[in-house]
């Protein structure tokens, strides 16, 4: 059954003009003034995948998106802008949602120690799903975040090459050495290593690395939480 443009705007939590612009880009016909624009199922699915959606709930859609983004980021997120990117929101909307959720004690900014050559502390937005009411937990579980944009795989940064002390790190590639690289990077006490591995190494190679004996259970939990984000 086709969806109307106003229905899609409510489901995405965006304005009607934003939906019309997205439909124009997809080539969905506009019936003209005075007629409701209808969206075929295929186009609806593409919009939902690209922009995300949130269920009807007493908590605003923008706040559900923020909670979904933070619940799928076990290391937390460093800024309102990064929350906005993950949640498919504008920075202004994400900032407003974070403040509202902070007032409800559903999110907090906590200092985290980041290993990046030398130890550094930074404030990161985090949430504790254990304190959520069950109804909210169900709503966040049904919240759909935007599909990540495909990006070219980046080369291994020089700052991470020391993790491969017994190999020629300049010749390692995710395509040929993915599981080996994942094992070293995800077990390292360096958030940059985790981010690079999760962004550039295939899920299959990551799972292969995690299935080996001796992997820290916390590392396995990190990967499991990240997989829910996808």
UniProtKB/TrEMBL annotation:
<dbReference type="GO" id="GO:0003700">
    <property type="term" value="F:DNA-binding transcription factor activity"/>
</dbReference>
<dbReference type="InterPro" id="IPR000835">
    <property type="entry name" value="HTH_MarR-typ"/>
</dbReference>
<dbReference type="Pfam" id="PF12802">
    <property type="entry name" value="MarR_2"/>
</dbReference>
<feature type="domain" description="HTH marR-type">
    <location>
        <begin position="60"/>
        <end position="113"/>
    </location>
</feature>
<dbReference type="InterPro" id="IPR036390">
    <property type="entry name" value="WH_DNA-bd_sf"/>
</dbReference>
<dbReference type="InterPro" id="IPR036388">
    <property type="entry name" value="WH-like_DNA-bd_sf"/>
</dbReference>
<protein>
    <submittedName>
        <fullName>MarR family protein</fullName>
    </submittedName>
</protein>
């Amino acid at each position: 059954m086709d969806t109307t443009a106003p229905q899609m705007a409510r489901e995405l939590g965006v304005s009607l003009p934003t939906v019309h612009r997205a439909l124009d880009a997809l080539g969905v016909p506009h019936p003209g003034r005075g007629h409701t624009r209808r969206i075929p199922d295929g186009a609806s699915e593409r919009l939902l995948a690209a922009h995300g959606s949130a269920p009807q709930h007493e908590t605003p859609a923008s706040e559900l998106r923020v909670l979904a983004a933070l619940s799928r980021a076990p290391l937390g997120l460093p800024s309102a802008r990064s929350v906005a990117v993950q949640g498919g929101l504008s920075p202004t909307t994400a900032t407003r949602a974070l403040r509202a959720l902070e007032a409800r004690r559903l999110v907090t900014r906590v200092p985290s120690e980041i290993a990046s050559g030398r130890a550094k502390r930074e404030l990161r937005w985090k949430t504790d799903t254990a304190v959520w009411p069950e109804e909210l937990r169900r709503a966040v579980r049904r919240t759909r975040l935007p599909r990540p944009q495909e990006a070219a795989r980046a080369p291994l940064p020089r700052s991470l090459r020391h993790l491969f002390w017994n190999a020629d790190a300049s010749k390692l590639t995710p395509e040929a050495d993915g599981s080996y690289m994942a094992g070293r990077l995800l077990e390292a006490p360096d958030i940059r290593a985790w981010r690079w591995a999760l962004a550039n190494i295939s899920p299959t190679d990551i799972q292969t690395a995690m299935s080996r004996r001796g992997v820290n259970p916390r590392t396995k939990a990190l990967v499991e939480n990240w997989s829910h984000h996808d």
